[in-house]
Design goal:
Blueprint lengths: L1 H17 L1 E6 L2 E6 L5 E8 L3 E5 L10 E6 L2 E4 L7 E7 L2 E7 L3 E10 L9 E10 L5 E9 L12 E2 L9 E4 L6 E5 L4 E5 L8 E6 H6 L21 E12 L4 E11 L2 H11 L1 E2 L5 E2 L16 H27 L6 H14 L20
Antiparallel strand pairs: 1-2, 2-3, 3-4, 5-6, 5-11, 7-8, 8-9, 9-10, 10-18, 11-17, 12-14, 13-16, 14-15, 15-18, 16-17, 19-20
Helix pairs in contact: 4-5
Amino acid sequence: MKRTIALFAMASLIVTALCALDVRDGLVRVKIDELNGRVTLYRLVAVKGTQYEPLVFDTDARTSSLVAAIDGRVLKLGDTQEYRIAARKIANGAEVEFASQVATVTQRIIFIRSSDSRIFNGFKIVYEVRNLTARDAKARLRQIWDTVQGEKGAVHFSTDIVARVEDEMIIGRDAAPLYVASPGENATIMLLLKDVDRPDRVVLANWKRLADSTWFYDTLLKGFSMPPYSVNDSAMGLYWDDFIVKAGSSKSVACYFLTGGAGLDFTKQVAKNGYAIAGEAAVAPPAAPAPQIQAPADSGAEARQKLLLDIEALRKLLGNLDAAIQGADSVTAEQLQGLIAELQTLQPPPQPAEGQPVEGQPAQQQ
């Protein structure tokens, strides 16, 4: 019986290998299963010789998935007969296209490099939705990456703000850290979240709970285990909220990953120095804002310009006051309040009491 199972498993691996598009360059590699369109990402490491380390679970590539909702219809791409699958090699990467009669969704994996590397060491992943119908469509996307590097150690995820993410977490676009990484002993994958295209929301969660969720994920769990079904099993969910795709046109969204070596060493380096993507974007690490000292009061040409504007405003106000005096009986309370407000805007700012600092200037030492 065991021999039969082993033969079936071997046959399955052979079929998968024969039906996989495999592209590699520099330190990175992407493999696309041409039967189901699933994508697996790798980094080249030097451990017991030179080999590629999977950055997501590669024993069963189906655990990483792309879900599209078009006009409210939610489909896991690669698991439905409605969409035909075509994988192809492109310049500096590969892509997989899911095509139906109403839309095509293309996942394009492009190799990139950080500015401190001479060879490719990361991925730009573009998701393009093309509307084939004669009316506008509403779309949203969810990409689940079944990360594995962090599961091998004590740190599932790490950010520049939280070095060890121990519980499930939701990261919004506006309050995002510099990055979120799945750090491993020999290889690390890092999602960049500042000054580059990025998802609207990132969810760090137990893989099974995330994969089984219909769409929205808002009930967080302590840790990344759901015994007995899914233990020490984390995943990263990338969400792009609703966007409109015009009839006969397309809309693209994207995200960026860098890869590195030993996890915490790599993340500390990025947290300290920031990152730069060759030909794309650069960002410095967060830093406490330096105190701003305003320039002294207006002087020279700027002061003269301000004076002319004040004189013109004063002339206008005098004209309004003259008209109000001539028609005093018909002036409303609202008009009177407006004149008072105009007058207040032309009054000079109050002078500070003796011994008090002037606004925008440091206090003098006694």
